[in-house]
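Batch 3, record 17
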Amino acid sequence: MSEIKAITPRDKDFAAWYTDVVKESGLVDYSSVKGSMVICPYGYAIWEQMQKILDEKFKETGHENVQMPMFIPESLLNIEKEHVKGFAPEVAWVTQGGSDKLEERLCVRPTSEVLFCDYYKKIIKSYRDLPKLYNQWCTIVRWEKTTRPFLRSREILWQEGHTMHATEQEAINETLKMLHVYEDFQRNVLAIPVIVGKKTEKEKFAGAEASYSLEAMMYDGVALQNGTSHYFGQGFAKAFGIQFLDQNNQLKTPYQTSWGVTTRMIGSLIMVHGDDRGLVLPPNIAPIKVVIIPIGDSEEIKSVTKTIAANLKDQKISYKIDDRDKTPGFKFSEAEVKGYPVRIEIGKRDLENGEVTVVRRDLLTKVKYPIDKVVAHLAPLFIDIQKSMYNKALKRRDSMIYEANSWIEFSQIAQNKSGFIKANWCGSVACENKIKDEFGMKSRCLITDEKITTNCVVCNKEAKYRLYFGRQY
Amino acid sequence: MSEIKAITPRDKDFAAWYTDVVKESGLVDYSSVKGSMVICPYGYAIWEQMQKILDEKFKETGHENVQMPMFIPESLLNIEKEHVKGFAPEVAWVTQGGSDKLEERLCVRPTSEVLFCDYYKKIIKSYRDLPKLYNQWCTIVRWEKTTRPFLRSREILWQEGHTMHATEQEAINETLKMLHVYEDFQRNVLAIPVIVGKKTEKEKFAGAEASYSLEAMMYDGVALQNGTSHYFGQGFAKAFGIQFLDQNNQLKTPYQTSWGVTTRMIGSLIMVHGDDRGLVLPPNIAPIKVVIIPIGDSEEIKSVTKTIAANLKDQKISYKIDDRDKTPGFKFSEAEVKGYPVRIEIGKRDLENGEVTVVRRDLLTKVKYPIDKVVAHLAPLFIDIQKSMYNKALKRRDSMIYEANSWIEFSQIAQNKSGFIKANWCGSVACENKIKDEFGMKSRCLITDEKITTNCVVCNKEAKYRLYFGRQY
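Prediction for the assembled complex:
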């Protein structure tokens, strides 16, 4: 097992554990380009799976992929005032092309609202041109000072949907529709429970009228924002002068949305499901669902390996055979660190009984199956693993959601517990800031399906909202 | 037909024709970011098809996708001397991050050899780590002064394979293997005949030991380099100090390749197959193979449209129904400008005979088929269209390849004809330059399967090579 570095125990040092897992599972490696990472084949394969599943959903819901420029001239970035204030401090500036100094500097896109608006202004003239439902898969750049693989990086792989609609209602519906596409994906594919809700004014996206986010809780109780969907109203459209003639030949301003998810989701997969042995991937997202490990190299073992591989191929179950010249112990460890949902061990003793051993990664339990029946058992097994991983994550998350009805309660929980705190709030930025300043906790999102029973947990004035608070990555 | 702009006839002004076709078919639009273009949904869908088909081939041949940083620190770009000379004059430089001036400027990758080498140096230690067969799909930047959609752009979408091997022979085999993957793709998917061969020393890639290219001839006789595959030998590996321990525990330097294709291939699709009505797409690459155009909106027409659409869906044939409130004439024109391989017209008169009309885009011929048999006729029709488009392109290309055995012959052909010229050459850069300076023709690639019968076409000294010459995009 010499080649696999020991992984720091998760409960001893969660940050070190995370770094060990991303590195040892072969998801990411450090690059000599400061602030940028190398996404290794296994990490990229997970991103490809995410892209494939989401892209299909986007297309099913009527969206089309496009590719906009990656550079934004400074004057274009400056058009929407809130937006530029939010992004200008963290962009990379291109000031020279070849040997020439540029007349106007260009930033590498940190997000593409202004590029889409600039283009929509050109192509939207009539109600017949609406809605425009465009999406883009690309890399964006944000000049972060401190970086961590998948969580905070100067280069982020993501998708960004940007849509334009004739009516407010249609744009709001789109915002919520895509929010729910993300929610389904995270629950059913990533097996990650998410809290879905509206951001406060202070926490919303620069230039948005309303921002909704998907808040996942990591194993350590810290929040990871796993995706956002924004309703822009007419803010950008007005700033860019986008107008269309409606059915009655009246000039109108369209309503806009944007929504996106990034490779951060890989970070949340690691931090929600991983354990002391490494990554644990839900079958619905795993690029390789099964690893077959032949123990020994007798003709019989080889032949059974081939048969099972052929059955897996027939059933379109992704698999890999690990027949390298390494010890079984090494291979088991590697299969565990990589988080393949299932491993099939093919050994001499089992074969004497006509059986092979199936080990599920999430529980590390072993079951023996007859050779010819093993593959048929996998489909229900994957369903069970997927469900069980979701329920485990849900149970842990729910056990780490607390309720505070007074400042004293809030303080005590914030100082002694990790997780989210539900609390009532008057709506003032001052109170929101106080919680952030004292405990490093930001508001996560509004709770709309529970009653507000007490006053603001900070100032004790009348509460208007109920909120989740939590620390964040 | 008011919404479709008239397309400049191809034989009147080829450049204007090209611009009209890319714009009117909805592949690309101009952006207000100088030198960058917007790839519209239809153009991006073609690129997605290319990606899907090629990516599958890359994976079948053992390659894995990764993602490297997009920025290259200046000191890293400077490591391989030939390479930096070739690329430094055309890169975009990031000099500022947020509000800080960078200590070292970074270029936006114009290609990623140095990034891969920097990473390979870190991960290749032993013969067991070889080969490394990595590929990357990404956007690169080259600071071009004049740009044309798909042909010359500041931002280029592409894939770049970068591989490392223990032996010279293995690396040479890889270079040629991927060249042939490209060749197959271009012939059988894009229906584009390509001349495949080695570049001269002068024309090879900056830092390569040998460059091979796929040379396609456009309708106007001008060459488009449709892909390249390079053998690097140990040049980069030595410059970067990449070494591995072989089976005998000896330190060795590995051998390297790189290979790539870009969205330029969309440019060649347009310029090889397009006609005065617009784009003509081969079925094997068309994102939408069939457009159904109902003429009228009677219940019967609607019902037949539905039936045929259901059959297409069953057969997994991509299609689109154009039931917009437009005239049939407009829809036919649009179907033609977009180059859908086949359109099915569903009209009242045909239905009286139980038939619908099928129009193939390449020949614009019409055939009537019984409603229930039409979809079954499509598979063989697509094969026929694909073959016929390839043969047509091949015939035209071959008719525009000339042979020159003396300077006088070369001059006369170069001044009077468009196309490629085969000629013998002594191997001196002076002679190669003379042809370029006098006629704007560069050497395309070496011909190795034909005998050298005369002396150098320029200096009349002994010829060592036989070459294609041609003007290029």
